[in-house]
Amino acid sequence: MNNTGKLFGVGVGPGDPELLTIKAVRVIKEADIIFTAASPKNNYSLAVDIAKPYISTSTRVEQLFFPMTKEEKEVESAWIHNAKQIAKQLEKGKKVVFLTLGDPVTYSTFGYILKKMACIMPKADIETIPGITSFHAAAARLNRILVEGEESLLVTSGAFGGEQIRNNSGVENVAIVKAYKNIKDINKALKETGLAEKAVAVSKCGRKDEQIINDIDELASRQPDYWTLILASQ
Ligand SMILES: C[S@@+](CC[C@H](N)C(=O)[O-])C[C@H]1O[C@@H](n2cnc3c(N)ncnc32)[C@H](O)[C@@H]1O
After folding, report:
1. Ligand 1 close to Cβ of residue 204 (< 6 A)
2. What value does the mean pLDDT take over residues 188-201?
3. Half-sphere exposure (CA, 13 Å, Cβ side) for 166?
4. Which of 78, 88, 122, 186 suits 148 as a labelling partner, its CA being 20 to 30 A distant?
5. From CA 38, how far away is CA 41, in angstroms rounded?
6. Looking at domain 6-129, what is its CATH homologous superfamily?
7. Which residues contact 140 (CB under 8 A, 6 or more apart)?
8. What are 112-124's pLDDT values in tens digits?
9. Residue-wise pLDDT tens digits, 207-226
């Protein structure tokens, strides 16, 4: 296969357009085509919005839709279809950028792209450009040390509640992303493991409607926004 194009997985950081790396900005400026993941229900892309100041007017921007379902077959076939869209552009020799929020190798849709590209175009030239994760940006926003000395940091998802926090009881620091729909159980687990006292939540970090919530009980009494994470430590 004559594939002279290149795919770049680019992290755009959590929201502030000044929190992209110089390399990310250059690659975005030089792109022939930019792809981003979108839900079929809502074709707005926050990643594109963040990168907008750097996207040339001549660059094509396209959304790759992924179904909001747990139906594995449907998800699989959507991602194979999406990876094929990218492969088509690489075959034409294009510089292709796939934009992701935060960092592309941290709880990111770019993971699906990497896996599917390995199947359908194993020799594709791919470069991952790291981005600032939401939890690094939140710690910086709070002037708070994430981890130091000989301590450990557990980075986990709260999508299914506080089980991972309980399973790792004793860890000095935690960063919990997707701290929204199961916030009550996350809060309970933080209390059980002695992590509640210094817990702080940050919602929409670096965006104009950013919120810092110091009272996790108050946060747990309502339905937090999807864009919420918690930093906690012993
Ligand atoms: C699918 S994960 C994406 C993580 C992203 N790749 C990263 O490196 O941070 C989505 C979760 O990241 C967190 N998140 C992303 N952006 C955020 C922001 N600006 N402020 C607070 N949390 C954010 C939220 O917990 C959200 O539920």
Report:
1. yes
2. 98
3. 10
4. 186
5. 8
6. Tetrapyrrole methylase, N-terminal domain (3.40.1010.10)
7. none
8. 999 999 999 999 9
9. 999 999 999 999 999 999 99
- C-alpha to C-alpha distances, 112 to 38, 43, 75, 117, nearest whole angstrom: 13, 19, 10, 8
Distance from Cα 91 to the centre of ligand 1, integer Å: 32
Query: pLDDT digits over 55-65, tens only?
Result: 999 999 999 99
Distance 13 CA to ligand 1 centre (A): 9
CA dist 52 to 12, 156, 223, 225, Å? 10, 30, 30, 24
Question: Does 3.30.1330.60 match the CATH number of domain 134-233?
Answer: no
CATH 3.30.950.10 residue ranges of the chain are 134-233
State the amino acid at position 113 in one-letter form.
Answer: I
Task: Specify the domain boundaries for CATH 3.40.1010.10 within the chain.
Answer: 6-129
Q: What is the DSSP letter of 186?
A: H
* Nearest partner of 223 among 186, 191, 175, 190, judged by Cα: 186
Show the CA angle centred on residue 97, arms to residues 93 and 102, nearest 5°. 160
Residues near 227 by beta carbon (within 8 Å), at least 6 away in sequence: 134, 203, 204, 205, 207
